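LAB NOTEBOOK - FOLDING QUEUE
OPERATOR: T.R.
BATCH SIZE: 2
PURPOSE: Compare the predicted structure-token outputs for two unrelated chains run back to back under identical settings.
PRIORITY: normal
REVIEWER: second-year student, initials M.K.

ITEM 1
FIELD SEQUENCE / FIELD STRUCTURE:
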Amino acid sequence: MRSPFDLSLYLVLDPDLCRRHSLVETAREAVAGGVTVVQVRHKHASTRERIALAREVKDALRGTHALIVMNDDIDAAIEAGVDAVHIGQRDTEPTLARARIGPHMILGLSVNSDHAARMIDPSLIDYVGVGPVFATSTKPDHAKPIGLDGLARIVSLCPLPAVAIGGLKAEHIEHVLAAGAQGVAVVSAICGTDDPGAASAELWACIQDARGKR
């Protein structure tokens, strides 16, 4: 049985954007501001470097309720002992990923089409990241943006909790939640700011406000 988790405000750490603060400092301040999930994403690092970074993030967030996720690198996720690993459509097959991480680690999957949503096996996957909703420079090779209508359609086909990602800012939160997503994933809206804690608190307040209107 996997532990429960909260997708409300999902931060994807980006070393290119987190220049004013280290990745670890950004994670610490963001969680203090309301972030519920922190994904460690460092495309250009080695597995050894990702393990070290994930361990630093774990230490910084010890005592909080934040879920710590490793992007793509299953070896790093296992060795660092994080809570979850997130894979894309072109990464490890979900069946193989689940076999490697065992029954207790949380597994997330990126989904950007109706077909991918229909292929989800809830016995393997725990949550989905749906997008990109809008174009974003933080992932230049991303798939074609699906827009808010596409988000609503894909989320309706997913049998699992979904977090929306891709160019999202505070002004999009009400629409994203109305589309059925359980949370909002951001990169630049927190990493690219002077004050990650304040930026996170603003996004968290927008989430609570949007939920209050529903």
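ITEM 2
FIELD SEQUENCE / FIELD STRUCTURE:
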Amino acid sequence: MKKNILKIIAVCTMVISLVGCGNKNSNTSKTVDKQSGSEGNKIEIKIACVGNEEHQSTIAANLFKELVEKESSDFKIDVYPNASLGGEREAAEGVKFGTIQMTVATSDGTLPAWVPEVQILSIPYLFENSDEAYRALDGIISEKLNPQFEEAGFKHLAFGELGFRHFTNSKKEIKNVSDMAGLSIRVQEAPIWFALMESLNASAVPVSFNELYTALQQGMVDGQENPIASIATSKFYEVQKYLCLDGHTYGAVSMIMNLDFFNKLTDEQQKVIETASKEAAIKQREVVSEQEEGYLQEIKDNGMVVTEPEKASFVEATNDIYKKPEVAKIVSPEFVEEVREFLKK
């Protein structure tokens, strides 16, 4: 009996030992990536974009993906256009809370909910041309705002291009600021845009970008304002008749990443991300600028009446917007004046 008991103990010990070895081998046969939560050696980055495959934000995201994956085998990047991960608000919130690693979003659209002063880009006629905008964005504006983005939980990687914004409408040709009177214009939901419409004697109507085509089609609003590329790729010429090339503000997109996600990367991986984002932004600006002439021709070919208005009348009507109390609460007048001084150098 004693011998039988000893045999049973020996067998049990052997089984436990084998099970233990099996578990050990199982644990070491897979590498679980802590950043993405997925199996394997790749760090997964999901990039949310609201625009379609041809939109400026998607162009920036795809260029970033190409540059990162070319430089490093550590990453697997997937771009999600067409608001498939939600509108800009949902995408930005997803990045903030870490459910999405990255988004490319309109800089002065939903992001001012966390970094109000990025609405300096909503100050009308701040930049005379693209070169001024690039210089300010990559210089004084980034220096001022990047720490604010980090305080909000974002890593602001770079500013890409949407382009100068122009008014379209379905009612009448706009030759002078007085022609704006009475029009209902879709704008982003922010006091600066409401102040702009008030100064032009037009009505401001906030509508999300992914619902804008339908709003125009159904006559919920008379018009909207966006860069030429956005107007063309979104086919707004199907539901709008008139385009006024007033260039009231320069539109940028922000490439932002969850800050905790970024901070957990190695120094080398962070360098890859930062370098690729800056290079992607430069290349994206070139691509968007080169496409603009073709997009404008497409707009004309599809029947829109394109007008170059008396721009001075618009500048005069909006000259003091940045000093209005409701605007000054968001963007300090001193910051606006700092940018203007910076551009004089």
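REVIEWER COMMENT (ITEM 2): Residues 267-301 form the longest helix (35 residues).
FOLLOW-UP: none requested
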